TrEMBL record, chain A:
<feature type="transmembrane region" description="Helical">
    <location>
        <begin position="24"/>
        <end position="50"/>
    </location>
</feature>
<dbReference type="InterPro" id="IPR000515">
    <property type="entry name" value="MetI-like"/>
</dbReference>
<keyword id="KW-1133">Transmembrane helix</keyword>
<keyword id="KW-0813">Transport</keyword>
<keyword id="KW-0472">Membrane</keyword>
<feature type="domain" description="ABC transmembrane type-1">
    <location>
        <begin position="70"/>
        <end position="256"/>
    </location>
</feature>
<feature type="transmembrane region" description="Helical">
    <location>
        <begin position="112"/>
        <end position="133"/>
    </location>
</feature>
<feature type="transmembrane region" description="Helical">
    <location>
        <begin position="181"/>
        <end position="214"/>
    </location>
</feature>
<dbReference type="Pfam" id="PF00528">
    <property type="entry name" value="BPD_transp_1"/>
</dbReference>
Automatic annotation (TrEMBL), chain B:
<keyword id="KW-0813">Transport</keyword>
<protein>
    <recommendedName>
        <fullName>ABC transporter domain-containing protein</fullName>
    </recommendedName>
</protein>
<feature type="domain" description="ABC transporter">
    <location>
        <begin position="7"/>
        <end position="236"/>
    </location>
</feature>
<dbReference type="InterPro" id="IPR003593">
    <property type="entry name" value="AAA+_ATPase"/>
</dbReference>
<dbReference type="GO" id="GO:0005524">
    <property type="term" value="F:ATP binding"/>
</dbReference>
<keyword id="KW-0067">ATP-binding</keyword>
<dbReference type="GO" id="GO:0016887">
    <property type="term" value="F:ATP hydrolysis activity"/>
</dbReference>
<dbReference type="Pfam" id="PF00005">
    <property type="entry name" value="ABC_tran"/>
</dbReference>
<dbReference type="InterPro" id="IPR050166">
    <property type="entry name" value="ABC_transporter_ATP-bind"/>
</dbReference>
C-alpha cells in the first residue's frame, strides 16, 4: 500500500542503526517506569498496604513463587482461561458459521445474541456461581460467555466477506461445499477470524477473574481477594502481574498463529511494536 | 478427434429480475462452437457478452433455451474460465494457485506440481512460482489465471475480457502471448472482448452481439492463415476487416436524459 505521505529516504545503513537503537527502547522504558514507581513511594511516604514499593512486590513475588502457591493459582486460572476460550470460541465459531450461511437463522437468533451481549457478565457471574458452584465449571462458563460474542461476530463478518469473485472461481471449477469450505472460506476468513480470537483471548482473562472474584478458593482472582482482605497489597500486585502476563501470553500466542498462517499478507509497513 | 461441434446453443434468452419488469440481457441466441477453434465474441457494452459466457460456465441459469455439449460419452464438460480480474487466491503462491484445480481432483501435491511446471513454462512464469499474488503485476497474475484454467485440460476455455484490466501495452503483449499459447495447445476457446484487433488476431470466427438485449447480428470467419503472428495487425487486409467489423458494432446511443426545470 502506498503511504499517503512519502517517508523520508534513508540509506540502508541508517535504517539498520535505528533498528538497533530501537531494541533498547523497551527495556529502558520499563526500567524508567519502575524507577518512577519507587520514587513516588519514597517521596509520598505512603504505607505499604496502600502502595507497596517495587522491591516489596518483588520479594512477595519470590516468596509466592518458591512456595509453589503462585504457580498453582496461575495454573488454575490458566486452565479456566483455556477451557473457556475453547468452549466459548468453539461454540461461537460453529454458531457463526451457521448464522453466516443462513440470514433467516440470524434474524431468529439476533435478539438473544444481542441480549446476551447487553447483559454485563459481571452482573450474572454471581448467578452462575450459585448455579454451578465455586469450582472451575462456573469460571469456564463465565469465561466462555465473554469470549463468545467477539468471536461470533468476527466469524460471521469474515465468512460474509469472502469475495464473490473467488466464489465464482470455485463454482466454475464445480467445487463441492466441502472443497469450498476448506480451500476458499477458511483461508479467506482467517485474517478477520483470528483478529476476533485475539480480542476474545484478552477478554477471556477478564471473564476468568470476574468469576474468581465472585466466589472461588483458587486462582489469581482468589489471590487478589485474599490480599485485599489481609491488607497484603503486595500480593494483589503479584496477582495482577500474573494476570497481565497470562493475557500477554495468550494474545502473543494468537498473534504468532496469525503471523504463521497469514504470511501471504504480511506487510512490514503495517507492523506495530504492540507485540 | 475433433467432431464438428462442441457446443450447440439454441434459442438462449436471459432476463434478469429487477422488479421493474426484468432486464432482458440476451434474446434468442443461436450459436455453434466448433471444436478446436477459437471464437471471439464482440459487442458493445451491455450486450450480454459476459452473461453468455457465465451461462456456458454454469454460473447463471438461462431463462429459456438450451446448451448441448458434445463431449465423449456425455460426460459433463470440463470448463476453464478466466475472468477480467485474475481472481487468484491471495493466500496461495503462483504455483499453488495453478495446482488448485488438481488438488480438487485429488491429485497428489507432488504430481500436481510436476504438471504445473509445464504450464508455468508455457505461460512464461518461470522464476515466479513461489511469488505471492500481491507481488505479481496485472499481466503476470493473468498468466497465472490462464495456467490455472489450462491445467484442467478443459474441453472449453472461456475467456472473459481476460486482458481488459491491463494497460494498453501489456494488453497487446498478452494478446500475442495468448496467440502463441493457443497455437501450441489448440483447445476450443470462446473469448469475450471489446477489442476488434484482438478478436481478429486470435480468432477463427468472430461473433458480433447487438446492444441490449443481446442478439446475434453477425458471424465472420477470419480468413488469415495460421500460424499467425502479431505482425498481421498492420496488414491492409487486417485493417480493412477491422473497419468492416467496427461498422457492425453499433453502440446504440443511450438516450441522454435532458434535465428539465421542474414546473411550478
Amino acid at each position: 500500500m502506498a503511504a499517503i505521505y512519502p517517508s523520508p529516504k534513508r540509506s540502508p545503513s541508517q535504517a539498520v542503526r535505528t533498528a538497533k537503537q530501537r531494541r533498547w527502547f523497551m527495556p529502558v522504558s520499563l526500567l524508567g517506569g519502575l524507577l518512577l514507581w519507587q520514587i513516588i513511594v519514597t517521596v509520598s511516604g505512603l504505607p505499604a498496604f496502600i502502595l507497596p514499593s517495587p522491591v516489596e512486590v518483588a520479594v512477595r513475588f519470590w516468596d509466592m513463587l518458591t512456595g509453589g502457591r503462585l504457580l498453582l493459582h496461575t495454573a488454575v486460572t490458566l486452565s479456566e482461561l483455556l477451557l473457556g476460550l475453547l468452549a466459548g470460541g468453539g461454540a461461537a465459531t460453529l454458531t457463526g458459521y451457521a448464522l453466516a450461511k443462513s440470514p433467516s437463522a440470524e434474524r431468529l437468533m439476533s435478539p438473544y445474541l444481542i441480549a446476551s451481549q447487553a447483559v454485563p457478565v459481571a452482573a450474572i457471574a454471581p448467578l452462575l456461581v450459585i448455579w454451578f458452584g465455586p469450582g472451575m465449571a462456573s469460571k469456564v462458563l463465565i469465561c466462555g460467555l465473554t469470549v463468545f460474542f467477539p468471536v461470533l461476530i468476527n466469524t460471521i463478518v469474515s465468512l460474509r466477506g469472502v469475495p464473490e469473485n473467488l466464489r465464482d472461481v470455485m463454482r466454475a471449477m464445480r467445487a463441492t461445499p466441502r472443497q469450498t469450505l476448506l480451500l476458499l472460506e477458511i483461508p479467506a476468513a482467517l485474517p478477520v477470524y483470528l483478529a476476533g480470537l485475539r480480542v476474545g483471548a484478552t477478554l477471556s482473562v477478564i471473564g476468568a477473574v470476574v468469576g474468581e472474584l465472585v466466589g472461588s478458593n483458587q486462582g489469581l482472582g482468589f489471590l487478589i481477594n485474599l490480599g485485599r482482605g489481609q491488607y497484603d497489597t503486595a500480593l494483589v500486585f503479584v496477582a495482577v502481574f500474573g494476570l497481565v502476563t497470562l493475557a500477554i501470553l495468550l494474545y502473543g500466542t494468537v498473534l504468532l498463529v496469525e503471523r504463521r498462517c497469514l504470511a501471504w499478507q504480511s506487510d512490514p509497513d503495517k507492523e506495530t511494536s504492540l507485540l | 478427434m475433433c467432431p464438428a461441434t462442441l457446443l450447440r446453443i439454441k434459442n438462449l434468452s436471459v432476463t434478469f429480475q429487477d422488479g421493474n419488469g426484468g432486464l432482458e440481457a440476451l434474446d434468442s441466441v443461436n450459436l455453434d462452437l466448433p471444436e478446436c477453434r477459437f471464437v471471439a465474441v464482440l459487442g458493445p457494452s451491455g450486450s450480454g457478452k459476459t452473461t453468455l459466457l457465465r451461462i456456458i460456465a454454469g454460473l447463471i441459469q438461462p431463462t429459456s433455451g438450451s446448451l448441448q455439449f458434445n463431449t465423449p460419452e456425455g460426460n459433463p464438460p470440463r470448463i476453464g474460465l478466466v475472468f477480467q480480474q485474475a481472481n487468484l487466491m491471495p493466500w496461495r503462491t503462483a504455483i499453488q494457485n495453478i495446482t488448485l484445480p488438481l488438488e480438487m481432483q485429488g491429485i497428489s501435491e507432488k504430481d500436481a506440481c510436476e504438471r504445473a511446471r509445464g504450464f508455468i513454462d508455457l505461460v512464461g512464469l518461470r522464476g515466479f512460482e513461489n511469488s505471492w499474488p500481491r507481488n505479481l503485476s496485472g499481466g503476470m497474475a493473468q498468466r497465472v489465471a490462464l495456467a490455472r484454467a489450462l491445467i484442467q485440460e478443459p474441453d472449453l476455455l472461456l475467456l472473459d475480457e481476460p486482458f481488459g484490466a491491463l494497460d494498453a501495452l501489456t494488453r497487446e503483449h498478452m494478446g500475442a502471448e495468448l496467440l502463441r499459447i493457443w497455437q501450441a495447445r489448440e483447445t476450443t476457446v470462446m473469448m469475450v472482448t471489446h477489442s476488434i484487433s484482438e478478436a481478429l488476431l486470435l480468432a477463427d470466427r468472430v461473433v458480433v452481439l447487438s446492444a441490449r438485449p443481446g442478439r446475434l447480428v453477425r458471424e465472420l470467419d477470419v480468413p488469415f492463415p495460421r500460424p499467425r503472428t502479431d505482425e498481421i495487425r498492420y496488414s491492409p487486409e487486417f485493417v480493412a476487416l477491422s473497419h468492416d467489423l467496427r461498422a457492425s458494432i453499433k453502440e446504440e446511443p443511450e438516450p441522454i436524459p435532458v434535465a428539465r426545470k421542474p414546473k411550478k
